[in-house]
Amino acid sequence: AAAEAELREAESVSRAVKRSISTLQGRIDETQAELDKTFFLNFGKRGGLKDEIDGLSKEQKAEVKKLEKAAKAVDKEQGLLKGQQENADKQQKVADKIVQDAAKAADTLTSDADKAAEGALKSARKQAEGASKAAESKASALRKDADKAA
After folding, report:
1. pLDDT tens across 9-23, in order?
2. Which of 3, 47, 52, 78 has the smallest set of CB atoms within 10 Å of its CB?
């Protein structure tokens, strides 16, 4: 988020500098047109206009340097943002893998628990059947003893 804010700020500065350069170029063009229209023997006015054009050109060159710095800042921020996005993508892949592995482990544990419960249930049924048969056998023996005694 911070890198995105810095990128937007750098792009904003770049746009502002481009507007400034464009404005300066317009002023240079207007001054040059006025100079071209000025009578060639009007040295004072022509000298002033030439000085103004020179000053505007220097300003424009300074703005071009600012634009170059702003462009570098934009490129840098875009690179940082791209790097952060790549890192986030990698982390997301790792997180997805962990979730997938956890789900697989949970499925395995559930399956193992189901098998263990099924085995315990079978064992309990066998023990119950065995106990039931033993009880029936003992009850039968007791009935026979009771029948003989009666």
Report:
1. 888 989 999 999 999
2. 47
* CA-based torsion, 123, 129, 133, 135: positive or negative: positive
C-alpha torsion 109→111→117→120, nearest 10? -100
Contact between 49 and 38 under an 8 Å Cβ cutoff? The reply is yes
Q: Determine contact, residues 7/81, Cβ cutoff 8 Å.
A: yes
Helix (H, G, I), strand (E, B) or coil at 42: coil
The pTM of this model reads 0.57
Structure tokens at 65: 């340097």
> Per-residue pLDDT tens for 63-118?
999 999 989 988 988 998 899 999 999 999 999 999 999 999 999 999 999 999 99
Rounded-to-integer distance, Cα 5 and Cα 75, Å: 14
User: Which of the four pLDDT bands, split at 50, 70 and 90, describes residue 33?
Assistant: very high
CA distance 54 to 18: 19
Q: Helix, strand or coil for residue 95?
A: helix
Q: At residue 50, what are phi and psi to the nearest 5 degrees?
A: -65, -40
Give CA–CA dist 86/89, Å, rounded. 5
- Among the listed residues 83, 64, 58, 82, the one whose alpha carbon sits nearest the alpha carbon of residue 22: 64
